[in-house]
Amino acid sequence: MVVFGIISSGGVSALGNFVDVPSVIITIGGSLSSTLASNKMPDFINGLKSITVSIKEPAQSDPTEVIKNIIDMSNVARKEGLLALEEQANNIEDDFLKRGIMLVVDGTDADLVRAIMETDMDNMESRHKSVIGFWEKWAEMGPAWGMIGTLIGLVNMLKNLSDFNTIGPNMAVALLTTLYGSLIANWLCSPTAAKLNVDNSLESMVKTVTVEGLLSIQAGENPRVIEEKLKTFLPPANRDNVGPDAPGGEG
Description:
Elements: H1 2-10, H2 21-37, H3 41-49, H4 51-55, H5 63-80, H6 85-89, H7 95-105, H8 110-159, H9 164-218, H10 223-231
């Protein structure tokens, strides 16, 4: 939309007016250096790499599928016993779910199963928050360094007020750093942080469903009761997609 606005108001040739290498170096280089100073190097590198994570759909992101799997396992456990779940665990790609199943199969105390899995969840959220914090910090530093670049440009402009021909161009260059800083914050960093927050909340919810489901299976609860319990994690509009009455379910 920014490019469209520039072209629609000034034509394609106007794009060149919005390119200034020193302004790019000041804004991007300065904001990244401040973000680096605010993070440890591994966290900084992981933060940069996470741009690909924000684009991809997270694995195991559909809670309805997780609930269906847990209901299937509860039926197996009810008919054949908990040990029968060990064979199913070998076909599961989700490491968190697989680890939980093995803890249940091994007869681990329910409180200990919950403690282990919730500790795993807490550490996952801590890692996610570190990455999200990287983007939030960069979003904070982008406009700040844009303003610093603008101040540098204004100083240079005021130093040459006697030459009226340079005032306009120098002012334009000074304002570009503010533009670049705003683009860093509002076009790149803040949306990325928001998307990662959404993914984190979804993954946390899916893992919570997993924990509650496995503990219910371990407690020997009726599969129908487990289904109704886990449905409460879903929006009302999605609850009909789970259970024997769901499309493709066993009627």
